[in-house]
Amino acid sequence: MTSVYIRRATPDDAEALSAIWEIICAERVYTAVSQPFSPEQERAYIASLSEREGIFVAEVEGRIVGFQSLDLWVRYTDSFDHVGTLGTFVLPEWRGRGIGRQLARYTLDFARSHGYEKLVVFVRAGNRRAQAFYRSLGFTPCGVLTRQVRIDGQYEDEIFMEMFL
Ligand SMILES: CC(C)(COP(=O)(O)OP(=O)(O)OC[C@H]1O[C@@H](n2cnc3c(N)ncnc32)[C@H](O)[C@@H]1OP(=O)(O)O)[C@@H](O)C(=O)NCCC(=O)NCCS
Questions:
Q1: Is any ligand 1 atom within 6 A of the Cβ of residue 131?
Q2: Ligand 1 center–CA 85 separation, angstroms
Q3: CA atoms of 124 and 145, how far apart (whole Å)
Q4: pTM of the model
């Protein structure tokens, strides 16, 4: 079995994370993020995260093959401090091989031990695999935001899903 090492990202991972964004944004169909974050943006973002937030990376033989981010739902008030949001991105050739599940095990443990009570995700309506992935972790669909994403001039709905920890 492939050995996967999960750890918290540091600003020095910015290049590798930006390279993954390049690939996933180029696919066009999985994320609502239309343009990849540059290494500089990624570095600044990692440095800006609080102790309760993080990007967690999955490494195989020293190479980052996927990551999962955990952010506070909002930063402008403490009323949502028990709510987090996730993003999960695995390189194409590594999908369907348990990387997402291993990342989630790590991130959910981290979330539980850092005061989160629930997590929320938004997933593009056409992204059935990601919906199945989040359902397999225990998320339930809550509703649809209509024409929520506009990418390359095309509108798409988004499904939002929640999970209590
Ligand atoms: C969605 C994604 C993060 C899942 O990660 P992954 O490493 O491929 O998923 P895993 O192999 O760990 O699978 C975990 C579970 O998800 C579900 N799943 C994964 N791929 C699936 C597929 N093609 N069809 C149905 N269910 C699937 C299964 O329940 C699976 O559990 P199982 O293997 O015991 O059946 C990954 O495929 C990905 O990066 N996709 C492109 C980017 C993306 O869509 N990100 C989400 C944006 S909201």
A1: no
A2: 17
A3: 10
A4: 0.97
